[in-house]
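Summary for the steering committee. One of the milestones for this cycle was to obtain a three-dimensional model of the protein with 1,3-dihydroxyacetonephosphate bound, which we needed before selecting residues for the alanine scan. The sequence and ligand used are listed below.
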Amino acid sequence: MPITGIYGPDDLASRPQGQVVSSPRDAPARTGPALPRPSLEWTPEVERATAALYDRVKHVIPPIEWPLMAPTIKAINELKRARGAVILAHNYQAPEIFHCVADIGGDSLQLAVEATKVEANIIVQCGVHFMAETSKLLDPDDKTVLIPDSRAGCSLAASITGADVRLLREKFPGVPVVAYVNTSAEVKAEVDICCTSSNAVQVVESLNAPTVIFLPDRYLATYVASKTDVKIIAWKGSCEVHERFKGEELRAFREADPSVQIIAHPECPPDVLAEADFTGSTAHMINWVRQKRPRRLVMITECSMADNVRAELPDVEMLRPCNLCPHMKRITLANILESLLTLREEVTIDPALAVRALRSVERMINLKN
Ligand code: 13P
Ligand code: SF4
């Protein structure tokens, strides 16, 4: 069914004028003991040491570019061992990060679950700030969580504050609130449970309530509403990457080749999802490609993911309208190396807030499949 209502900051009369959502840029950055800088020269030894890694990405990184990346990749992998660090990378990270330096890759849910199992003392989160915050929340042993660029935000996380959630609760007393993990810890602390795009419908239905407030993504909310009888009240947030896709672009791909397969992320608008053969989280999309092995594929999501899949499955021809997430792209080999050298930038969360935010994330993770 269609969503029951949609609200934004302008609809909450008592939201203080001019209030801005706290930005990841404001996060305190702490430094740690620096290690000596490694040489970043391209030498025969670097070529030998990184040959197996190049083999993983040879279909998506031209040979001429490898000498520019390989010395940093080698240095990161050595420093990672010296520091006892683990690198977590989201599916939207560039192939040289995802396939060559990450220990664990995945969608938001997989990264959150893996963060609970990591034994290393340091996690370097290659993704956006809310993902690093989620890893920090789930860190039972007070590990150091680093993000190579703390300005890596997210248009969804920036669309809503904890105060907005409190105002929504006043407007809809007793209605449970589900927050997509693409939110700040401050928002997670105000809601009943979190969800990701992998489990959003399951989470909404787990509440056994006739109506649920689902925030902040209006399009994910619309998708969830189309899959459940629970009435959904949405928030006016959107992903600046996925909202740019248009149904007509997809129709043009299909008209040019009726055999083409189209898969899309549920953060896309409904006219885009209506054209897709499959809709799912980034991990569900990747699994779909592994199982179906389509000859020609249009992946409607952030474009580095198409490169990561093509590196693994070169026989699948990718046709893609390419939208990059500017926040994900703030993470580079150079700043990952810097992060390991200097232990910057450390993600910190106020402990009292963290206890409340953790409850919402753990409630999601503990949901039985
Ligand atoms: P996934 O949970 O599907 O990886 O999505 C995260 C995200 O930010 C998509 O834009
Ligand atoms: Fe946020 Fe969209 Fe970037 Fe994902 S792709 S991190 S939802 S801005």
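Key point for the committee: The chain is about 40% helix and 15% strand.
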